Each structure stands twice: as C-alpha cells, then as structure tokens.
Amino acid sequence: MLFRPGALVAATMLFGLPASAEEIVRISGWGGSEVAIVNGLLTNVLAEKLAEEGIRVKYEPVDGDYSQFIINGLSAGTAPDLFYVDTFWARSVFSAGQAAPVTNDVSGFAANLLTAFTYDGKLYSTPKDFNTLAIHFNKDIFDDAGVGYPSDDDTWTTLQEKLVAVNKSLPEVDGLCVVPEYARFGAFALSTGWSPFDARGKTVLDKRFRRAFDFYTGLVKSGAAVMAADAGHSWTGGCLASERAAVAIEGAWILSALRDSAPNMNLGTVRMPKDPESSKRGNIVFSVGWTVNAASKVSKAAAKVAELLTTEEAQQWVLEQGLALPSRTSLNDNPWLRGGQPEQIASRVVLEGLSDDHVMPYFFGDVGGSWMQPINAALNSVILGEEDANTALLSAQSAFDRMLAK
Amino acid sequence: MMASMPAAEVSPSRRRLPAGALRRRQLAASAWVYLAFLAVATIMAGTFVLAFIASLKVDPLERPFRIYFDQLNPAAWVAAARLGREGAGDALWGGLAPGANVHFSVTYAAPADARIVEPRAEIPRRRPGSGIAAALMRHYAADYASIALRSSSSATKQARDKRGIRQGWQARTFVYEITYRSDRHNGPWIERTPVNLTAPTSQTLIDSPISPSRSERRGRLLSWDNITPGALGLIFNNYRRVISETADLQTGKSLIGSWLGNSLAIATGRLVLTLVVASLAGYALARLKFRGSRLLFAAALFSMTIPAQVTFASNYLIFRDLSLLNTPWSVIVVFVASANVLLMKQFFEGFPREIEEAAIVDGANRFQVFCKIVLPNAKPALLVNAILAFQGAWNDFFWPLVLITSPPEALTIQVGLLSLRRSFGGVQGDWGLVLAGAFISIVPVVILFVLFQRHIVSTEFAKGTT
Questions:
Q1: What percent of chain B has pLDDT above 90?
Q2: ipTM rounded to 2 decimals
Q3: Which segments within A94-199 are labelled E, that is strand?
Q4: Hey, which of A212, A402, B215, B220 has its CA 20 to 30 A from A189?
Q5: What is the mean pLDDT of chain A?
Q6: Which residues contact B5 (CB under 8 A, 6 or more apart)?
Q7: What architecture (CATH level 2) is domain A22-128+285-337?
Q8: Does the beta-carbon distance from A78 to B427 stay under 8 Å?
Q9: What is the separation, in whole angstroms, between the first and last Cα of chain B?
Q10: Per-residue pLDDT tens over the stretch A94-116
Q11: Do A234 and B196 touch (CB under 8 A)?
Q12: What is the mean pLDDT of chain B?
C-alpha cells in the first residue's frame, strides 16, 4: 500500500476536530492502593462515558504528603481541577472558599458520610468511599495458641483475655500492637457514650473517657499488647502482616497491604468489641470526598467527572474488585458483600461498623486534625510510662480548654 | 663527664635492638597502621556495600542480616537461568510464555517418626495490593498455567535435631511440572510465576532450586513470588521492579527514567548558569573597582548565612507569579551562587595581573581580557565549580520538593525517591524496591566522579579553592 501523506493529514484533521474540543480535567488523589481504584474506574468503567461527555481526564496520583500537596497547590493556583479531601481537614479548604459546592443530587449517599462535607448548609464534596474500624485477626495464631477466635460478641474484657492468652501460649506473638492515636483509641472512648464535643461545643474528658483511656493504655501492662513502635512497626496492620501480633484494629484498607505482605493469611474479621458497662459499640467513620477546585477553568467538567466516579455503577465495580466500600446506601445489599472470602467478610464487617451504636466521623469541626493532639500526647506518655493517667489527662483537659476557649 | 655504661647495665628499654628485631618491629608497626587504614576503609565502604547487598534482597530488613542468599549464590543463578529458560526461553530475564514446561523440585525432611506428606501446590492469583503495579498488572500466571506433581522420591539424610544430635531423617523430593495451558497457547508473556506450597509444620523444606520468598501461616505455607525469574531477573528483581512498577499510567513510560532525565536537565542547567554567573561576578569582584563593590562582596558573604528556608516563601510567590511553578526553570534559577562566586573571585585574585595589563596594552578591552585570557586559564576553578554545582543540583531536595509537585513525571529523582518511600516503603514495607531506586539515583554522580576524579583529587582542586 502506498503511503499517502495527504490522506493522512485529511484523516487527522477530520478525526482530530472533536479531540480539540475535549476538555482536560486534572484530577488527583493519593497513591498506594488508590491508584488501582481510580485508574481502574477511568479505564475500565468510565472510558466511554467520559468520551461521550468530551472530557479527557489526566490522573495524577500523589505519593507524598497529600494534604500538603493540595493546600500548597490551592494557594499557588496549581491545584488540580478535582481532588480528594479527607474529612478531618476538609473544613479548611471549604472555609477558604477554595471548593465549589456540589450541585448534584446526593440523596443516595449514606447520611453520616455527608456531615463532614457540609459547610454553611452546602455540600462541598461527593463522598467517594468510607471505612470504619474492625478487629482483623490471624486464625492460625489463635489455632496454634489454642485460644478461641475473637467474635462479634466480645467485650473489651473478653478480647483482652484472649489476647493475653495468646501471648502466654505463644510468647513470640503479641496480642495487638497499639498506637497512641485517637484514630484507633477513639472507637473505645465512643463506645462508652462519650462524645468529642458536648452540647456546649466543649471537649470534656469525663469518667467515661477515663474508663476507655485506662483500658487502652493498660493493654500493654496486662500483656495483651505491645507498642507498635517497639515491635518495629508504625501501624497495627504491620504487626498483623508480619505475624508479630494476633489482631489488628484497622479499616478495610488493611486488605491491600496484606495482598503485598501476607497474601495467604488465614484472615478473620469481626466487629469492634463492646464496652462491658454500656454493652455498646463505638466506631469512627473515615471518608474522603471528591471536591471541585473553585478556581478551576473546567469546573463543570470536573463536577461531571466527580459525578461519574461516584455513580452506582462505578461504586459497584469498585466494591466487586474488593478495592473499597461504596458510599451509596443502595449497594449495602450487594451480593458480593455476602460472600465467604476473607476480603468479602472484612468488607461486610467494616460496612456494618457504620451502624454501630456510637459512630462519629473522623471530623473535628473548625478545629481540624489538631484537636486530636492532646489525646494522642496523653496516650503516648501514659503507655510509655512517662506520666500517670491523672497528670496526662489534666494536661490534655487544659489543652482542650485553651483550644476551645473562643 | 659521664662515664660510659657497660651494655649489660643499660635498661632493657634503652638497649639497641638487633637489626632483625628492629626490622620485625617496624614491619609490625606498618602492619598495624595498614590494618587500621583498612578498617576505616572497610567501615566507610562497608556501609555502602551492605546497602547494595540489601537492595538485592527480597526483604532488606530481615533479622539477622544475612550476606549469603539466593541473589549472591551462583548455584541459585544457575537454577534461575534454567527455570527462566524452561519458562520463557530466556535464561536472563525469565518469565512464563506459551510452550513453557518448567520442572520445579522441592525436598522436605522430617524426623524418622513423622510422615512426610505431599505439599499442596497451587499457582495463586497474586494481585499487587498497592502502587502502580496494582493498576498495571493485567495478566496473571494463575489464568494460564497449571501445576501438577510429576514424581516423588524418598531418601535418608543426616540432620541435626533441636538438641544438636545428628540423626537420620527421612527426606522426600517432589518434582512439580508447571506448564502453560495448551488451550491458552495464544496467551501473553507473563513476568512472574508465583507458587504456593502448603505442608504440615512437622516437615521442613531442606532444598529447592531457589529459596521461597517468604514463609507464611506460621510456617505452614511457603510462597515463591516467581519461580521463573531467569538469572538477572533473580539477582536484580528489585531493580527491575523499580523501573516497571513506577510507570506513568497514561503513557506507560517509566517514572524513574523521567525523574533521572529531569534531574539531569536541572543539574546541567544549573551548572551552566552557575558557571556563567559565578565567573562573571567573581571576575567583577576581583578586578573591577566600582562604587559599592565592597558592600556587594559583604552582601554575597552574608547571603551565605541565610538558609534557603528563609527565602522560601518569597521565592515561591515570585515563581508563582511568573508561572514557573512545576517547571524545571524554577529549580534551575533558584540557586545560591554566593559560594561559587567567592570561589571564582579567589581564583581570579590569584591570577597574575601583569598578564591582563599586557593584554590591555595590546589593545584588548576588559571583556576580551576576561574571555580570551582569564577564562581559558581558569579551567581548574571552573571544573571544581562545575562539579560542585552539578552535585549540589543533583542532590538538592528542598527546592525541587517545594517548586515541582506535579505531575508525577515532572519530579526530580530525589523527590521521586521520597515518593517511592511513601508508596512502597511505609506500611507496605517493600524496602528492597526503595533501596534499588536509591542506588539507581547515585549512578550519574558516580559516573561523574569516575570521569573527573583525577581533577577532583589532584592539586587542581586546591588551586580552585585557594
């Protein structure tokens, strides 16, 4: 066949015209397991629809400090057109007028995911997915130790007894790796009925908080746990993956980490233990939302991409890949969630965490993530034995009083 | 006057040694000095060598640290080459391709009173959990390959039990055959062939062509990430992964390649700019007498005391307003030239003034003197400046981190390494890949030093700095 440059130019012009009308939407989110989710959606599920809308998506995952990346980018005018915001720092973006309100119908989303994304009565982010905490455990360790598996009926006390028994039977294994962070401890505090903010908007570290605090910080002393850092890990899932600990308190995000570091683990997942006094469960909801950059030149197209990324069809694909949990309530009955595979069970349990007795979003109003600092400092100093609980909690209470004095 | 003392009365420490003993003592002293130097060199180079060894390992953090493992074991290289050839006809890089017929043998041992059972073998569908590999992986060996036990044989081996007592253990060797399924003969080439073997903990694996990647389920399950690696695929698996698993999702191009290219462009740009500015400014400060020259010199000196972080915000805003953020130009021009200027000034001040005056008498103007007389003679100082500027730009972390944040392919190698650390090193614990990336990042600077080491270590360096 002869090469005909003229024909090629004509064809290029003909087919090239619609391409030139394309709107390019830059989107970004964090790296890690998120890359597979977003890229999979864009290439496997939404490619045709995006083409129909005349939108080309340029996806830029960020492996660095994501919040810093976005906040710097928004200040400098280099932020992408569509990006994630996490519930606990979303307010700083909304209050600075850097996000465009979401105008889509969001009636299909779980109501308790929308709280943190609402500011001044307007919704500024479309919930992408969510997570709650659950107890993930290594069945082989419990089998070898001759200790019964953790169960949905466990209270703090019975779970602690099981963890101590595991450590006694298998000294090389610890029950749990604890981290001195509200992001894990908070679920225990909430189960007592304590709330981060009382009716006057103050944080009061009352007797209920103290009970949960004493339990959590006492896990190490009782032999049920070890500090994660002392075990050479930065999170509870790292200890579980390396078979150093029998259980981990994490969300469904642990599944992607286990695929890399312990792909064959005989994994079990149950709900968070109940407070033995109140017989209630507490949990924290972690969520991320798609947010349109208010300064974007293609904000309409960006909003359309956000809408497509969170449609029921898209979320069903994400769910069935075992990648994340949907934010749309209609997918709660999806058949995939009733399966018996460890990943399906873990996802189901994490989904059920949304309807625990005392569930709060990982969100601290206008104060933002710094609200957690006094509690984290108190947990750390008591677990390390640097201070007693009385002193540490007095300091924390003073810090909250100062922080919320306005 | 002191009377001479008989030799017998001289204290032993002051007595002259026989020549042979003196020679031995000198040799011993030399040997100790030599060993001391060797020890220092080993400690200095040893950390580097250990880090490189660790970068080859599946788990660089393993404790205790071993220096004898498959990636450094010639027997494993030979086995990996055979497995790669049987898997895809490629003894170097291996894989699994249509027509593959791989034989993989494992030997388990157990005390005489225990029974050795056949391990349950499977080719798992191993999905990467994170990073770009999770998004890019399309083909899984589990969809195309089958595994079956081909033969087994028994033997007795001498082994030590837990108490260290030698006794005869029974051993059984199982040979598995992994084949590319005949009904999928048009299937793709697949990079990795993972295998899982599950057996009771009462029996121990004592031999396999290549070692398992990890032991899971408290010793019940042995897991190989890839049994058809090929020799180079086995040794440089982390290096292969850091190139293939850091790819741009849109173009498929390796990100680490882009990062190296960006660093090279930025370092070269900064080198050129440094040479131009430093030589012109250094010459002006050394030779030209103008109002405020002393003040300018003092300002240049003072500017060396200001950390980059102090000027970060103002520089950032200027680059934002010039629309230079996220471009290499911002990092090229945001350099502190004071040190380089002073280096050149010092050199020019030492340059004989008479030569310049002779040129001026011959009719040359100041710029001609600079270009045609001074600069050609300033090669040592220029070379030192160039090397320092290149190395400084290559290793710079702060400014690229602040000024270039997106897209991912626009980063420099040093910031890219941070991205690798966050993506693979944190909760994933995949430090082998991060270390491999770090070693790739030093290659250009090592090449630079190898090429110019003669100039760096010779007296030329002294000429430039004094």
A1: 44
A2: 0.84
A3: 99-100, 118-119, 122-123, 126-131, 134-138, 174-178
A4: A402
A5: 90
A6: none
A7: 3-Layer(aba) Sandwich (3.40)
A8: no
A9: 54
A10: 999 999 998 667 778 888 788 88
A11: no
A12: 87
